[in-house]
Design brief:
This protein is mainly beta and about 850 residues long. About 5% of the residues lie in helices and about 55% in strands. The protein is globular and about 90 Å long.
Length: about 850
C-alpha cells in the first residue's frame, strides 16, 4: 500500500511538473439572467456571457487578485459560475452546489440542519466546524467580506452576479482559514438605470419561489437597488406525528438594499444591508441495517468486523438489543414517510449585516479602498431526524418521568442547539500600477463573538406495558440512580430532561472571542510583455479567548470546583503566521498562459466544547506547489484549463471519539486533536468549454484528488473507581471527508431560434462523484453519486412595446430520481468507547448504520419578466 501511494504521488508530481494547474470555464448562457458587467469593470464581460454569432468566446473577469483581471490571464486556479449558470442549474442556495457543479468544490449539509454547511476545496474539508472555537478550512466571502461562521450559509442567495471558486491556499490575499481556497460571492451592484426583474415559480412538494430585483434611476449621484427573495419547499419525508415538521423542508425569505454614491469618477461608495431568515429541517436519518457487523458477546476475534477503530479490545460484553416495535430498516431507498412520528419544529437561522465599500482613485497609480462590515447570525436548532434509528437503543426498564414510574424506554434524541454570532471586520487596501509593477497592499482587522449551547433530551417514550408510544412532556424531569422497593422508586437524582428552554439538561455551553490582525502585500513584476513574477506575503496575529460554561449539565461558572476536577482550562491562546506566495507566469501566446506557483495557508487553532476539559488544539498549516496551463484555441471557440498540485499539511485537525474521566464518571466525547506527520493531498483538475457551432456550448470538468493522513497513535485510558488507570495504545487511520477520488461534471446548452427574436434554450448537466467517507475516523464510505439536472426555457418573448421581455421555463433537478446515501454513520453499529476496561468493549448500544439519502427529484415551472 505504501509503495502504491509513493508511485502514485510521483506520477502525479511528474504530471504536474510537465503539464498543469488551475482552471475555470465560462459556463453556458441562459436568456433569463440579464447580463451585468463585473463590479467596477465597465468594459468587462460577465461570467457565462455567450459569444455573439460568429464571434469568439467572451473574456471573463474575476477578482481573485483583489483587482479585476481576465480569468485566462490570472495565474490562480479558479472556476466561475455566473448568474446564467446558476439559473440553469436552479441553484437557489449554496447547498444546491452539493451535486458537484464544480468537481473540486464539495458542499455537504450538517446532519442536524441544512443551513450549517460543510464547504471543502481540494481535500481541505472540516468535519465539525459547528463549534464556536473551531474554524472552517475554506473562506466564504460575500462582496469581499469574510463570513466567520458556516451557519446560515444556506440562506437564499441575493441577485448573484457570479461565484468564484478560488482553489488552493489563499493565505496571502485572503488570510487565515483559506487553506483549501475561497468561495467569493459577488452580487450585482446598482446600475443607476430604471430596470428590474420579477421571477415567480411553483414546483412539486408544494414548492414556490419569487424574486424581485429593482434598480432605481440615479438621483443626485445616488443609485439604489432593492432585492427580495422567497423560497419554499415542503418536506420530502413526512412526519407521521400530526402538526409536526417533516424532513428536508425549507422556508426562506430575505431582502437586500444597496446604495451606490458616485459623486465623481474617482470616488465610489457602496453601502448595503441584508437580512435573511431560513426555516428548515434536516434530511431524515434512516436506519440502514441492523447489527451489520455481527456483534456478539465473547472474544472480539470471533466477531472481527465488530471492531472500534483506535481500540484494542479482546472481549466484547453486553448484548445487542432487539429493535423497538414499528422500526423500519431500509438501506435501499429514501423513505417518503417516517416509521415513527416525533416532535419537530423548524430550525431557524437569521443572518443580517451592513457592508460599506469605499473606493477612491487617488491618482492613476493608486486606488484606496475601505471595506467595513458588521454581521450577525442567530441560529436555533431543532433536530429530531433520527427517531428510533440511533442511540439510545430500545431497552425497556424502570423509568421515572415527572415522578411517575413506568416500565418502558425513552428514545429519539432531540438535538437542540442555539448559537449567536456577531462579527466586525475592517480592511484597508491600496491597489494600483506603477510602471511595470502591479501591487496590492492591505491591513485587516476581524473581531468575532460567538456563544452556543446544546442539549439532547429524548422526545419520545415507549410504554412496554401498553405498547403505546407517547411524546415526553417538553418540561419533563427524569429520575435516575433509584432503587425499586415494592414496585416503587426510592432515592435517585432528579434532573431536567425536557426540550423547551429552561427545562433542558445542558450538554455543553461555551463562549469565544476571536480577534485577528493582518498586514499583507503582493507585487507583480511584468518583466516583459510575456513574463510575470508575483511575490507576496501576509503576517497574521490571531488571538482567542474562550470559556466552557456548561458540561454535562454542570455549571462551570457557579461550580469551579467541579470544573477544576474535570481538568478544565479556559482557552487563552494566540498564534502568529507569515504566509508567503510566489508565482512565475509566462504568456506563451495571447491564448496560451502557464504558471508555476508556491503558496501557503493556515487554519487557526481552538478548543473543543464537546470535551469536559475544553481540550485545546493547535493550528494546521499547508504548503502548496502548483503548475497551471490556461489555453484558448480554434479561433477562441475552445477553452481548456489544466491544473496540477501537491499540498502538504502539517498538524491536521482530526476528530476522534474518546473517553474522558471526569469528576462524575467516564464520558465519551468528540475530541479534536492535531495528527502528527504530514497529510498528503495531490490533485489534477481540468476544465473544457467548446462552442463548436452557433448556439451550441459544451462544458466538461474533472477533478482527481488523492488524500492520506498518516496513522495516529491513539491512547485509551480508563480510571477505575479505585483510582487505578489502565491504558492501551493503538494506531488509527483517519480520512478526509466528502472528498471523492474522482469527480466530474458535464453540460450541454443549445439555443434554437424561434420567430424573430425569441429562442428556445435547452440545458442539461450531469454530475458524478466517487464514494467518500463521511467521518474522519471511520473507513466506512457513503455512496457514489450521479445526478442529472435540466432546463428548457423559451426566452426573449416581447411584451407590449417590446421593451419588456419574458421567459418561461421548465426545470428539473435529479431528473432520474437517483437515490444515494451521502452520509453514512457507522458509530451506532460498533462497540462503544471504553468506560471501565480498555480491553473490553460494550455492545449494549449497537443498533446499525444510519444515514441520509440525497434529495429526491424536484421540478417546477417559472416565469421571468425583465422591464
Amino acid at each position: 500500500m505504501t509503495f502504491r501511494s509513493s508511485v502514485r504521488a510521483r506520477l502525479l508530481a511528474g504530471f504536474a511538473a510537465t503539464l498543469v494547474p488551475v482552471a475555470a470555464h465560462a459556463a453556458p448562457t441562459s436568456p433569463d439572467a440579464t447580463p451585468v458587467a463585473a463590479a467596477d469593470a465597465p468594459a468587462a464581460t460577465p461570467a457565462d456571457a455567450p459569444a455573439a454569432e460568429g464571434e469568439q468566446m467572451a473574456d471573463i473577469v474575476v477578482t481573485a487578485t483583489r483587482r479585476e483581471t481576465n480569468l485566462q490571464q490570472t495565474p490562480v486556479a479558479i472556476s466561475v459560475l455566473g448568474a446564467p449558470a446558476l439559473v440553469d442549474r436552479h441553484v437557489q442556495s449554496l447547498y444546491d452546489l452539493a451535486d458537484g457543479g464544480v468537481p473540486s468544490l464539495r458542499v455537504a449539509t450538517f446532519e442536524a440542519r441544512q443551513s450549517a454547511l460543510t464547504v471543502g476545496i481540494r481535500g481541505i474539508v472540516p468535519l465539525d466546524a459547528n463549534q464556536p472555537a473551531r474554524e472552517q478550512g475554506v473562506g466564504i466571502y460575500v462582496d469581499g467580506v469574510y463570513l466567520g461562521r458556516q451557519h446560515g450559509l444556506n440562506a437564499a442567495l441575493f441577485d448573484v452576479e457570479r461565484i468564484e471558486v478560488l482553489k488552493g491556499p489563499q493565505g496571502t490575499l485572503f488570510g487565515r482559514n483559506t487553506e483549501g481556497g475561497a468561495l467569493n460571492i459577488v452580487t450585482k451592484a446598482p446600475s443607476g438605470k430604471f430596470e428590474g426583474r420579477v421571477r415567480a415559480g411553483i414546483g412539486n412538494y408544494g414548492a414556490y419561489n419569487g424574486e424581485l430585483h429593482l434598480d432605481l434611476p440615479e438621483y443626485h449621484n445616488f443609485s439604489v437597488k432593492l432585492d427580495g427573495v422567497i423560497q419554499y419547499q415542503g418536506a420530502t419525508t413526512k412526519n407521521p406525528l400530526a402538526g409536526q415538521t417533516g424532513w428536508n423542508y425549507f422556508d426562506r425569505q430575505g431582502g437586500r438594499a444597496a446604495v451606490r454614491w458616485a459623486p465623481t469618477d474617482a470616488l465610489t461608495n457602496d453601502f448595503s444591508y441584508d437580512y435573511g431568515q431560513d426555516k428548515n429541517s434536516p434530511f431524515y436519518s434512516q436506519l440502514l441495517n441492523y447489527n451489520p457487523n455481527g456483534c456478539v458477546a465473547g472474544a472480539q476475534s470471533a466477531a472481527p468486523a465488530c471492531y472500534l477503530p483506535g481500540s484494542a479490545y479482546t472481549t466484547l460484553t453486553g448484548n445487542v438489543k432487539a429493535l423497538m416495535p414499528g422500526v423500519v430498516v431500509n438501506g435501499n431507498s429514501r423513505m417518503k414517510v417516517a416509521d415513527i412520528g416525533v416532535p419537530q419544529q423548524p430550525s431557524i437561522d437569521q443572518t443580517h449585516g451592513f457592508t460599506n465599500i469605499l473606493k477612491y482613485k487617488l491618482s492613476p497609480e493608486v486606488e484606496l479602498r475601505s471595506i467595513t462590515a458588521w454581521r450577525g447570525v442567530d441560529a436555533t436548532q431543532w433536530d429530531n431526524s433520527g427517531g428510533a434509528h440511533r442511540v439510545p437503543v430500545y431497552n425497556p426498564g424502570n423509568v421515572v418521568i415527572n415522578g411517575t414510574p413506568y416500565n418502558g424506554a425513552l428514545f429519539s434524541r432531540y438535538s437542540l442547539a442555539d448559537l449567536r454570532q456577531r462579527q466586525f471586520s475592517q480592511e484597508f487596501q491600496a491597489v494600483g500600477t506603477v510602471d511595470r509593477l502591479d501591487y496590492v497592499a492591505g491591513l485587516f482587522y476581524f473581531n468575532e463573538h460567538v456563544s452556543d449551547d446544546a442539549a439532547t433530551p429524548n422526545s419520545n417514550f415507549y410504554n412496554a406495558a401498553t405498547g403505546q408510544i407517547s411524546v415526553v412532556d417538553p418540561c419533563a424531569t427524569i429520575t435516575t440512580g433509584f432503587t425499586v422497593v415494592n414496585g416503587l422508586p426510592v432515592g435517585g437524582t432528579t434532573s431536567p430532561a425536557g426540550s423547551q428552554p429552561g427545562c433542558r439538561s445542558i450538554d455543553r455551553a461555551s463562549a469565544v472571542v476571536s480577534k485577528s490582525y493582518a498586514a499583507y502585500g503582493q507585487v507583480t513584476w511584468n518583466a516583459t510583455d510575456a513574463l510575470h513574477l508575483t511575490a507576496g506575503g501576509r503576517y497574521t496575529h490571531d488571538k482567542k479567548r474562550g470559556a466552557l460554561l456548561f458540561s454535562r449539565n454542570v455549571n462551570y461558572v457557579t461550580n469551579p470546583t467541579a470544573a477544576a476536577a474535570n481538568g478544565y482550562k479556559p482557552l487563552d491562546a494566540s498564534w502568529d503566521r507569515f504566509n508567503p506566495m510566489v508565482t512565475l507566469a509566462y504568456d506563451f501566446t495571447s491564448d496560451v498562459h502557464g504558471y508555476v506557483k508556491y503558496a501557503t495557508g493556515y487554519r487557526a487553532g481552538g478548543a473543543s466544547s464537546r470535551t469536559s476539559n475544553y481540550q485545546a488544539f493547535n493550528p494546521e498549516d499547508v504548503k502548496s506547489y502548483e503548475v497551471g496551463l490556461k489555453t484558448q484555441f480554434w479561433d477562441r471557440r475552445v477553452r481548456l484549463n489544466l491544473a496540477g498540485y501537491i499540498m502538504d499539511r502539517k498538524d491536521s485537525q482530526v476528530d476522534i471519539s474518546s473517553i474522558q474521566t471526569t469528576a462524575t464518571g467516564n464520558f465519551n466525547n468528540l475530541v479534536t486533536i492535531n495528527a502528527p506527520g504530514t497529510t498528503k493531498i495531490r490533485g489534477i483538475e481540468a476544465e473544457l468549454t467548446v462552442q463548436p457551432v452557433e448556439n451550441l456550448t459544451l462544458n466538461a470538468s474533472y477533478a482527481y484528488t488523492y488524500t492520506r493522513i498518516p496513522p495516529v497513535l491513539i491512547t485509551n485510558s480508563v480510571t477505575s473507581a479505585a483510582g487505578v488507570t489502565t491504558s492501551t495504545q493503538v494506531l488509527q487511520n483517519f480520512y478526509i471527508v466528502f472528498t471523492p477520488r474522482n469527480a466530474a461534471t458535464g453540460s450541454v446548452d443549445y439555443a434554437l431560434p424561434v420567430g424573430n427574436d425569441s429562442k428556445l434554450r435547452f440545458h442539461l448537466d450531469a454530475n458524478y462523484a466517487q464514494a467518500t467517507q463521511a467521518f474522519d475516523q471511520f473507513a466506512t464510505k457513503a455512496d457514489a453519486s450521479f445526478i442529472v439536472n435540466g432546463r428548457i426555457a423559451l426566452g426573449d418573448i416581447a411584451l407590449g412595446d417590446g421593451v419588456q421581455k419574458m421567459t418561461v421555463a421548465l426545470w428539473g433537478r435529479n431528473l432520474f430520481d437517483t437515490q444515494y446515501i451521502f452520509r453514512r454513520d457507522p458509530s451506532n453499529s460498533l462497540p462503544g468507547a471504553p468506560t471501565t476496561n480498555v480491553t473490553s468493549g460494550s455492545i449494549n448500544n449497537v443498533l446499525g448504520d444510519y444515514g441520509n439519502f440525497n434529495a429526491p427529484r424536484t421540478y417546477g415551472v417559472e416565469a421571468l419578466v425583465n422591464f
